[in-house]
């Protein structure tokens, strides 16, 4: 990404839940702590937004991003928040980093945000989220790709409160159960809290309709796992990551927060890695 490099980097966060709270904790202990400043937090329910960073303003309306001179607005608030905050973020900051990437399965929204970014000279950034291997998949897509398959395997608890409850007996499972096979677009639409990653792999590789996604509940694991495989003119890719779930939200992985921390650190550090 091409955020202006200066110190401190002025960051706005959208959402003050498990991921963004953890991002702030991790940044405050990191080597870039002095080089970043959380200046605003956009929330839906201000009465629930406890313990926000001392210098941050609490925002409830996207128009309040104006005048804050932001470098990055980083979203981790859920898919509806992307449409709600995205246009204003792209007009007011150098970059809008999306964690709820499933929102971008709506092609009209994706195209609208890209055209706002183009007009404003900013960037819509799809963070790698809970995934591993996205850098290689995106690089591989410069040559023809034949197939990308993404299996999302989570413990039954991570699928509670989602349509999986109607497709598989989550509490009675004794072995892994596959309950969805379909396109990345459909996975993200039906499982908005668990399959944002499907859109990340799709946008990196062969798109929302050609990327095949399988969803699995596995009572034998404690981690949120992603198995990504691809082949094409570049060769073959096969990557598995076993993510520790976040203590405050078992649907989300530690790595989703770590990816945001990496993106922010790379925007301010003299070494981008
Ligand atoms: N790309 C990836 O790999 C991953 C993506 N995700 C995505 O990240 C999202 C956030 O995850 P996580 O932090 O664990 O979720 P949480 O549920 O812990 O936190 C989400 C927070 O966002 C707030 N929120 C909801 N709507 C809005 C809005 N319109 N504007 C501002 N804030 C809002 C909620 O506030 P309240 O309810 O109090 O109003 C809540 O505090 C998930 O919903 C999912 O879409 C998650 C994991 C991995
Ligand atoms: O954290 C994960 O493993 C992935 C996830 O929840 C999502 O894509 O929404």
From TrEMBL:
Keywords: NAD, NADP, Oxidoreductase, Pyridine nucleotide biosynthesis
GO biological process entries: NAD+ biosynthetic process
Catalytic activity entry: L-aspartate + NADP(+) + H2O = oxaloacetate + NH4(+) + NADPH + H(+); L-aspartate + NAD(+) + H2O = oxaloacetate + NH4(+) + NADH + H(+)
Pfam family, one: Asp_DH_C
Single GO MF annotation: NAD binding
Keyword Membrane: no
SUPFAM superfamilies per the UniProt record, alphabetical: Glyceraldehyde-3-phosphate dehydrogenase-like, C-terminal domain, NAD(P)-binding Rossmann-fold domains
EC id: 1.4.1.21
Binding-site residues for NAD(+), renumbered to this chain: 130, 196
Family, per entry: Belongs to the L-aspartate dehydrogenase family.
HAMAP family: NadX
Name of the protein: L-aspartate dehydrogenase
């Amino acid at each position: 990404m091409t955020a202006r490099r200066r110190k401190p980097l002025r960051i706005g966060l959208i959402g003050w839940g498990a991921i963004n709270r953890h991002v702030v904790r991790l940044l405050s202990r990191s080597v870039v702590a002095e080089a970043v400043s959380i200046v605003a937090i956009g929330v839906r329910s201000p009465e629930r937004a406890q313990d926000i960073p001392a210098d941050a303003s609490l925002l409830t309306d996207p128009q309040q991003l104006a005048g804050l001179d932001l470098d990055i607005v980083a979203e981790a608030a859920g898919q509806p928040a992307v449409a709600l905050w995205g246009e204003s973020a792209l007009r007011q900051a150098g970059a809008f980093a999306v964690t709820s990437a499933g929102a971008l399965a709506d092609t009209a929204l994706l195209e609208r945000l890209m055209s706002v970014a183009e007009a404003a000279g900013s960037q819509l950034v799809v963070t790698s989220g809970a995934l591993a291997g996205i850098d290689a998949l995106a690089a591989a897509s410069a040559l023809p790709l034949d197939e990308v398959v993404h299996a999302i395997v989570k413990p039954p608890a991570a699928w509670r409160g989602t349509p999986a409850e109607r497709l598989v007996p989550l509490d009675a499972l004794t072995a892994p159960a596959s309950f969805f096979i379909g396109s990345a677009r459909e996975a993200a639409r039906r499982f908005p809290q668990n399959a944002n990653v499907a859109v990340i792999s799709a946008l990196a590789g062969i798109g929302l309709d050609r990327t095949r996604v399988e969803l699995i509940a596995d009572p034998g694991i404690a981690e949120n796992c992603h198995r990504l495989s691809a082949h094409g003119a570049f060769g073959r890719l096969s990557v598995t990551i076993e993510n520790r779930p976040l203590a405050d939200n078992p649907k989300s992985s530690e790595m989703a927060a770590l990816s945001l921390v990496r993106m922010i650190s790379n925007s301010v550090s003299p070494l981008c890695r």
